[in-house]
Amino acid sequence: MFTFHHGFWTYFFTRRHPAVWQFVIGAMLPDYVYFIVLGLMAAQGRISLGEIPSLTPAIFLSYLPYYPWAVQTDLLGHSVVVWGVAFGLTLLPALRKAQPLVIGWGLHLFIDGITHAAYSNFFLYPLSMLTVESPVSYWEPEYFGREFRTVNGALITLAVLYLAYQWWKNKYRR
């Protein structure tokens, strides 16, 4: 799923929770490295700013070998092992306030697990390079990418309309 979609859906389902923004930040956390890489690619002249909106995941991934540190960061950020350690640490009283952030991160890993096919994550890294490939991909046409984008886009549209209606209703109720 695209990074901002992770954030949107997490916001939609946690919007009434006092820690909503921690959940949202955590849900996008494993992909922040990609924004840094995009900035570096633009600064180094590998791509122009105008090319960013049309950059497909496949083309973007082809640039990652230029940034081995980003690949390592991605592997760590998408690891259930690393996430499990982080979640375990949030059970300590001193780190309990970070729990919504780590839960959001876990939601990201779960959603990636069901929406990544050929480019699935190494979820047991660094213990294993095992992957579980979903039959559905959020962007690969051969794994129902078009259908997923259509359904996800329609649901996002409905959710935005619902949020707008709720906002409008509450605004004029007062």
Detailed description of the structure:
Keywords: Membrane, Transmembrane, Transmembrane helix. The chain crosses the membrane at residues 20-40, 52-69, 75-95, 107-128, 148-168. It comes from Thermosinus carboxydivorans Nor1. This is Phospholipase C/D domain-containing protein. The chain has helices at residues 3-14, 20-28, 32-43, 57-63, 68-77, 80-89, 99-115, 145-173. It is mainly alpha-helical and 174 residues long. The longest helix has 29 residues, at 145-173. The protein contains eight helices and no strands. The protein has one domain (2-173). The chain is globular. Helix 1 (3-14) runs antiparallel to helix 2 (20-28) and helix 2 (20-28) crosses helix 7 (99-115). The mean pLDDT is 95.
Radius of gyration: 18 Å
- Percent strand: under 5%
Shape annotation: globular
**Largest sheet geometry:** none
SSE order: HHHHHHHH
Q: Count structural domains.
A: 1
- What is the subunit arrangement here? single chain
Helix content: 55-70%
Number of strands: 0
- The number of helical elements comes to 8
Measured between the Cα atoms of the first and last residue, the distance is 37 Å
Query: Helices and strands: which structural class?
Result: mainly alpha
The residue ranges in which pLDDT falls below 50 over 5 or more consecutive positions are: none
Q: Mean pLDDT, rounded to whole units?
A: 95
